[in-house]
Amino acid sequence: MSAIKFSNEEKALLAAKLQRYFSEELSQQIGRFDAEFLLDFISEEIGGYYYNRGLYDAQAVLSAKLDDLGDAILQLEQRTDFKR
Fold first, then answer.
1. Domain residues for 64?
2. Of 13, 16, 42, 81, which residue has the fewest beta carbons closer than 10 angstroms?
3. Which residues, other chains included, contact 54 with Cβ-Cβ below 8 Å and sequence gap of 6+?
4. Could you read off the pLDDT of 24-55 as tens digits, one per residue?
């Protein structure tokens, strides 16, 4: 898996969200540098867990859709004297 990277604009938005969380929920002020440092830590150390969960969820959805598609194809099957 490649490292999780964000554009400068995305990183600024996420850092601002961390700053707001620290301010509103923890009554602590952190600067943008500290927020970006925390974001880097979360991305490197925890991000893979969220990434993998997203992959597993996507795989489950795709598998269910493929099952539905297989069922739909079987419903189109015509009766013949051939045995399957």
1. 46-77
2. 81
3. none
4. 999 999 999 999 999 999 999 999 999 999 99
